[in-house]
Specification:
single chain; 13 strands; binds adenosine-5'-triphosphate; Rossmann fold; CBS domain Like; transport; about 25% strand
Length: about 325
């Protein structure tokens, strides 16, 4: 879907922001670019929608060389979410989101309907929020409006630059989870820049770790990155993997055991099969029980025991 081939950017003052980067992002995949400050993440992102022109290399989007594309046309097909959201302060929330459909020539009524749908999608009840102004919303709510607006053109590709950067850690965690869930539904191709390795590991299907001088140090799934960091620098940056592995390892039915033999008194609350091992352990600790029930929607699937947790961890670290 997105392919970077030998892409480099040297600024006029001689700063090498990105060095001969090769990177592929598959359709529907969420890739996080992560690394220390100044290592070229934002420059890379902005080269994809040509806010910055590369000095070398080629970028392909769905088979089309973006360096040949009209930048304005190109950007309409690519949603862009930035930390400083850029909402128009004197326009109501619905008008902020309607801007894009109106630009596409939709009637006001259709644009408003679409804006309300999108607000609903990002968890902002239109009846409550559509008529408010940006300053009447919290940071996290404004961030959601930014996401709704980026989705308004229904672009297949979303570029996000520190999209959850401006909010406190609790709201940030909630927005990350919500966006991950939304992404599972929408199946966009997403490239997300963050300096936060936890965010990258939690959100990304794959993670590109950048090193100083705009070099790609490793490009791997979160599990691979934690289990096999490419070098000492990546290992340092990623930090100790054991605990993080719990966050990225999802439950699967083969980790479960049938309910038979477990007395219901031993069973605390049930968690969803989409949960992570971390969620499962948290439920066991909370209920002070050695097993936790697992369901898919209303259907009870089985129980997870410490042996199941161990099996799942071993598979994930293989
Ligand atoms: N317009 C510019 N002119 C010269 N150098 C620049 C310009 N923009 C960025 N740089 C430099 O290019 C390098 C990469 O910058 P970039 O913004 O891509 O990094 P980043 O990884 O996104 O950093 P951060 O996490 O701090 O946002 C940095 O050394 C930066 O100082």
């Amino acid at each position: 879907m997105i392919r970077l081939e030998g892409v480099g950017k040297t600024y006029p003052d001689g700063t090498v922001a990105v060095h001969e980067l090769d990177l592929e992002v598959a359709r529907g995949e969420m890739v996080c670019l992560v690394g220390p400050s100044g290592c070229g993440k934002s420059t890379t992102l902005k080269m994809i929608n040509r806010l910055i022109e590369p000095t070398t290399g080629r970028i392909w989007l769905d088979g089309q060389d973006v360096t040949d594309a009209d930048p304005v046309q190109l950007r309409r097909g690519i949603g862009y979410v930035i930390q400083q959201i850029g909402l128009f302060p004197h326009q109501r929330i619905e008008q902020n989101v309607m801007t894009v459909p109106l630009l596409y020539g939709e009637s006001k009524a259709v644009a408003r309907e679409r804006a309300h749908e999108l607000l609903d999608t990002v968890g902002l009840e239109p009846a409550q929020y559509a008529r408010k102004y940006p300053h009447e919303l919290s940071g996290g709510q404004r961030q959601r409006v930014g996401v709704a607006r980026a989705l308004a053109a229904n672009p297949p590709v979303l570029l996000m630059d520190e999209p959850f950067g401006a909010v406190d850690p609790i709201v940030r965690g909630r927005l990350q989870d919500e966006f991950r869930r939304l992404q599972d539904e929408l199946g966009k191709t997403v490239v997300l820049v963050t300096h936060d390795i936890d965010e990258a590991i939690r959100m990304g299907d794959r993670v590109a770790v950048f090193a100083a001088g705009g070099r790609l140090a490793q490009y791997a799934t979160p599990g691979e990155l934690l289990a096999h960091p490419a070098d000492d620098q990546v290992a340092d940056f990623v930090g100790s993997g054991g605990l993080r592995t719990l966050t990225v390892t999802r439950l699967r039915e083969e980790h479960l055991e049938p309910i038979d033999g477990v007395s219901t008194g031993d069973l605390g609350s049930a968690i969803d099969i989409d949960s992570s091992l971390e969620d499962a352990l948290a439920a066991m600790l909370r209920d002070d029980k050695p097993v936790v029930g697992v369901r898919r929607g209303p259907t009870f699937l089985g129980v997870l025991t410490p042996a199941g947790v161990h099996r799942a961890l071993r598979e994930s670290l293989r």
